[in-house]
Amino acid sequence: MFFTYLRRELRRRRKAALVVASGLALGIALVIVVNSVSSGMGQAQDKVLQSLYGLGTDMTVTKAADPQEEGQAQRPRFRFDAQDSGSDEEQSSDRVMVQGFETLASSTVAKVGSQDGVSNAVGGLSLQVVKVSGQFTRGQFQQGGGGGGGQPSGPGGEGRVEGGGADFDVNSYSVFGTDVTEPELGPLTSSKITSGRTFTSAETNAKVVVADASYAKEKKLAVGDTVTIKDVKYEVIGIATPESGDAAANLYIPLKQAQTLSDSADKVTTIYVKATDSQQIDAVKSEIQKNISGTTVTTSADLADTVSGSLSTASDLATSVGKWLSIVVLAAAFLVAGLLTSSAVSRRVREFGTLKALGWRSGRVTRQVVGEAVVNGLVGGALGIALGLVGAYVVTAISPTLQAELGGGGGTTGPGGGGFGGGPGRQAAARTLDVALTAPVSVTTIALAVALAVTGGLVAGAFGGWRASRLRPADALRRVE
Amino acid sequence: MYELRGVTKHYSRGKDTVHALDGVDLTIADGDRLVIQGPTGGGKSTLLQMLGGLDRPTSGEVVLDGTDLARLPEARLTRVRSENIGFVFQSFNLIPTLTAQENVETALVPLGIKSKERRERAAEALQSVGLGERLGHLPGEMSGGQQQRVAIARALVKQPKVLLADEPTGNLDESMRDEIMDVLERMWKELGLTFVMVTHDSAIAKKAPRVATIRKGRITVKENANS
């Protein structure tokens, strides 16, 4: 009888049921979209961080910078002598600089690795190479014919310098020295080898290079080609394509080679650390900071705080405006559903009064009202889930591009640096990444939607059920007759 | 057997107090047939509600087979209604979305009877009021007289001791009225019910063995020699 009565009543009051269900559907759809977009934002942020860190890195250790006066920071200098005008010889000079100009001793890697809660620690050296190449020819002094205009003439008569000048091209790119014996940690892990191969653990000091796909395309590099860095030739053994965002560096070479190129023997710029337990990251951070002085430990959470740009703005919007909008719409939907159910009970006073006169207990009448409201809620939930999935699908299909600016003004080191925490003396190179936003809908989100639908039904049912339970049969029959 | 002793019912209507029943004493024997008459607002329906345990008196006792309905807890009063008392209303009060058979079944739901038996008993009850062919019809698909017969079947399907009818022919034309009264009288005789009916219809009142008249909450009962 319960289900027969329920089904017939819902069919009879289709429009009212649809209004209640639609209100709930709207709220639930909004919750799904906001939730999935927030989740997408989280994934986008993770991708941004992974593009710096690589997969599996929980934190980085860098050297805290010593405060330096403005202008004291090292800058590369290039000196070229002018050549004779007839010379076609190209002049070039590379400067290999350690990114951020602060290094840690390689022994620190082992020290960090021995700390409690540290699963693995790997060192890396970030370099910036600036290559200036071109021609600088000397001007030619031309003896004048008869002077002119009363100009003073020098010894030997009048003349002027003609020709000469400089035509230089500056090529700047980043190189990351990676520990080839620990391939599971570090920036290269966030890239996939799409051509050739990666380093073998035996290539600790080999003259081989893995090129980032974008850089390789720009420079027309392919596996088997040669790249020259500071007069040293490296064979391209692989092309790496980042899984998301931009690559950490343009070129990857074995750590020892990077140290040699930059005259930084036994030095690293960043130590990539994996914790044994991802829940204990803050404790491990404190442990490292306490035991290894002069270091800056940056967790992914710290780094996430430095993300700005449209990704950050959208993330803030999703978590603040989106959350409150969902709450307001849901609350309104619950209220409207409750009031409509209550109003439906008012219109059915004689019906419920009659049932009570026939001996139906208040509880049975209330269950009937709540049952109808819960089914309404579930219909609203199903509609809301469908609507929410469509919304999430549309967001994913459009994939709006969001920009993430990392470490702007915060002293974050450049590509491949991975760490931050520098001072005035450090090279503060903010990094901008484009990330496509997706809106993944998780099982948890669907479960939340179902829970909200049932809650909405129960709230609406509570309104109506409360009225129905208070109904005295005599009053009910008297009021309508 | 009903015993009403000093039953009063007062309603507050704004600043005024309405004395719907004012010290009503009444005895109704088992198998009795009583018609209640009186002017509109005189307290007829209120008295019927007291008899049916739909409302409680402000003071006094409404005793049915030794149990004072006025003092019964709500749950027990509900059980008394579900087991012993059948109601027939002026405007039928059928559930519009349920078929004739399902409407009759609603009276058996509180008794915890299984659905198969409910269906069978509902079908029998409808056959007994001449609606065996209309089991699957919705109230909206039936005439007023047919709807009232469904309501009678609903009141009697649980085999109550008491049948209370509040102007059961009030919304029907003359031919329908006679048809319904024939059904009610037949049931009263066949089932040995205690039958209390409120009506404005003097023709019906003339046929009743006892007629109670309520005016301003006070009751007078006359034996009807013509019945």
Automatic annotation (TrEMBL), chain A:
Subcellular location: Cell membrane
Keyword Ribosomal protein annotated: no
GO molecular function per UniProt: transmembrane transporter activity
Keywords: Cell membrane, Membrane, Transmembrane, Transmembrane helix
Sequence ranges assigned to domain MacB-like periplasmic core in this UniProt record: 19-290
Membrane topology classification: Multi-pass membrane protein
GO cellular component: plasma membrane
Transmembrane annotation, as ranges: 324-346, 373-395, 441-463
Main subcellular location: membrane
Record-annotated ABC3 transporter permease C-terminal domain positions: 325-423
Bias kind Gly residues: ranges: 142-164
InterPro entries, per database record: ABC3_permease_C (IPR003838), MacB_PCD (IPR025857), Macrolide_Exporter_MacB (IPR050250)
Region Disordered: start-end pairs: 64-94, 138-164
Family membership noted in the UniProt record: Belongs to the ABC-4 integral membrane protein family.
Record protein name field: Membrane protein
Species the sequence originates in: Streptomyces spinoverrucosus
From TrEMBL, chain B:
Keywords annotated in UniProt: ATP-binding, Nucleotide-binding, Transport
GO CC, any one term: plasma membrane
SMART domains found in the cross-reference section: AAA (SM00382)
Keyword Iron-sulfur: no
Top-level taxon of the source organism: Bacteria
Residues of the ABC transporter domain: 2-227
Protein name: ABC transporter ATP-binding protein
Organism for this UniProt entry: Streptomyces spinoverrucosus
Lineage, broadest ranks: Bacteria, Bacillati, Actinomycetota, Actinomycetes, Kitasatosporales
